[in-house]
């Protein structure tokens, strides 16, 4: 079905992204996978190309365009290129809104220009070793010392954790406040007591540095409080819809791309003297996946438009996230099976897509959490 949500401007932007991928990403991606980290020069190149800070105001060096469809194009093209480890979406779509909507004017002038040039790479640190999706279980604490906070604790599974120059921390500022005793504090590279642990060894997206972070008596200036004191819970809930939409967009793009790859493969690969595509079972497999992708794409495109218009609610974002990522997981598994032994070989795109995509149903809120949000909205 013809997609109706993109204009000529969006398609021109898609061509720009594809050129950037061909020139600045794909020639280096294998090395980044081996290194476990993306070169900082690639972030600077993305900044020069105007791919960072799409929604940031022009006065700070950004694109000045909050239309989420541009972010969707970016996610689709990076996913199709097999380069999910270069976390532009994390920087633009997940962390960017915290800075544009919560930062003071002084903070915006201090942080946003570097955010847009790629000189300042960002991360957000919520997850702790003993607290995953449970914000009430966060133990990292910040003690008020008058003109600064003293931060102590640790975080894990932090995307961009090694590269990050600016980390938005979720910390407990009121000991007895539960989920409503948390605040967002910005920790910057070089602050004494801020240390990075291991670059964690993951099964997929190896070029996307994911780290442990440690904080021992880190002095955080009061000027680095982001948003309201003890307001982190509300701030986090406000921004999660876009995070989940970004993940969902990548999920359906991955599923569609895997279907394309596998459709070509079964037409070319022969078994028992004829192409696999001539076997009824193969045709049924392809038909089922194609139908699921088409139905999901229709829903996702509607969600993208609604979000671009400021009309998408948390429930439909949760529906999009869990359905698209679970579809991605199913399609990756079935497509690998249809490739047979070749699907298990690391040099085949389907093998990398299988491992790269497995995290999709976990980060940004697990499938189980998404179902809980949806069910609670319907049943109270």
What would your notes on this structure say?
- The chain is built from eleven helices and ten strands.
- The chain has helices at residues 8-25, 29-35, 40-48, 68-80, 88-102, 105-117, 232-268, 280-308, 314-338, 349-356, 367-379; strands at residues 122-125, 141-144, 148-159, 166-172, 182-188, 194-199, 210-221, 225-226, 270-271, 274-275.
- A hairpin with a 3-residue loop joins strand 2 (141-144) and strand 3 (148-159).
Number of helical regions:
11
Oligomer: single chain
Q: What's the order of the H and E elements? A: HHHHHHEEEEEEEEHEEHHHH
Described by strand count, sense and barrel closure, the largest sheet is: 4 strands, mixed
Provide the structure class: alpha+beta
**Radius of gyration, rounded?**
21 Å
In percent terms, what proportion of residues is strand? 15-25%
Cα-to-Cα separation, first versus last residue? 37 Å
Name the shape in a single word.
globular
* Largest sheet: spatial strand order: 1-4-5-8
Key structural traits:
about 375 residues, alpha+beta, four-stranded mixed sheet, four-stranded antiparallel sheet, 11 helices, 10 strands, globular
Indicate the topology.
Blueprint: H1 8-25, H2 29-35, H3 40-48, H4 68-80, H5 88-102, H6 105-117, E1 122-125, E2 141-144, E3 148-159, E4 166-172, E5 182-188, E6 194-199, E7 210-221, E8 225-226, H7 232-268, E9 270-271, E10 274-275, H8 280-308, H9 314-338, H10 349-356, H11 367-379
Parallel strand pairs: 1-4
Antiparallel strand pairs: 2-3, 3-7, 4-5, 5-8, 6-7, 9-10
Helix pairs in contact: 1-4, 4-7, 5-6, 5-7, 7-8, 7-9, 8-9, 9-10, 9-11
